[in-house]
Write a structure and sequence with these properties.
Elements: H1 2-10, E1 22-26, E2 37-39, E3 42-46, H2 51-63, H3 77-95, H4 97-118, H5 133-155, H6 157-169, H7 175-186, H8 188-192
């Protein structure tokens, strides 16, 4: 947990560091699909079962220190997709590229499975449109994280980290502000092609 916080504080959290946080592990049955939640100063996650899964959940919840400003009704991807991709980046740094790549492939496979079963999952954001509840999880946790990975691949790691740092510094709470930051760093075309 300390290594994840250190990674976040050295990257996008440089100007708003998380100095202390408490973790609460709670037992839940396997049938319950609760991943956990973050509140300022603490977070709650299910009891550990598999190290990689627990590491990702811890890293995801810790990332909500920075990624928690989006309106959960129509801008939740700014919270969940960013926290999810931040967790993947932390695991890439701390546990290596093979795990990172396998987690990305798992997200792609799960997204394809959802789309096979229930139709195309819409974009994580469309101005003025709310996601249907059946699409919320696959859109924010799978599609949104994959979209951020694609953006990182196009921009390069250094510019992408600068983008995340600016987004965290400005407490980005809406997609239009995030697109403005992309324009500042990467230009109009990249922002226009983001979704």
């Amino acid at each position: 947990m300390n290594k994840v916080i250190k990674y976040y504080n050295q990257t996008f959290g440089k100007n708003n560091q998380q100095l202390a946080v408490k973790s609460i592990l709670r037992p839940i049955p396997d049938s319950v699909k609760s991943l956990g939640y973050f509140r300022p100063g603490y977070f709650v996650v299910p009891e550990p079962r598999r190290f990689a899964t627990v590491s990702r959940k811890l890293a995801h919840e810790l990332a909500h220190y920075w990624w928690n400003k989006g309106n959960v009704q129509d801008e939740d991807w700014l919270n969940e997709s960013f926290a999810e991709y931040s967790a993947l980046m932390a695991l890439r740094k701390l546990q290596g590229l093979p795990l990172f790549n396998s987690l990305l492939e798992e997200k792609k496979a799960r997204l394809l499975e959802v789309e096979r079963q229930s139709g195309k999952v819409p974009s994580v954001y469309k101005a003025g449109k709310k996601l249907q509840s059946r699409h919320t999880f696959p859109s924010t946790y799978y599609k949104g994280a994959l979209l951020l990975h694609e953006l990182e691949s196009l921009m390069g790691k250094e510019k992408f980290m600068l983008l995340l740092q600016k987004a965290a510094d400005e407490n980005v709470s809406n997609t239009e502000t995030f697109l403005r930051l992309i324009r500042q760093i990467e230009g109009e075309q990249q922002a226009n092609n983001f979704f």
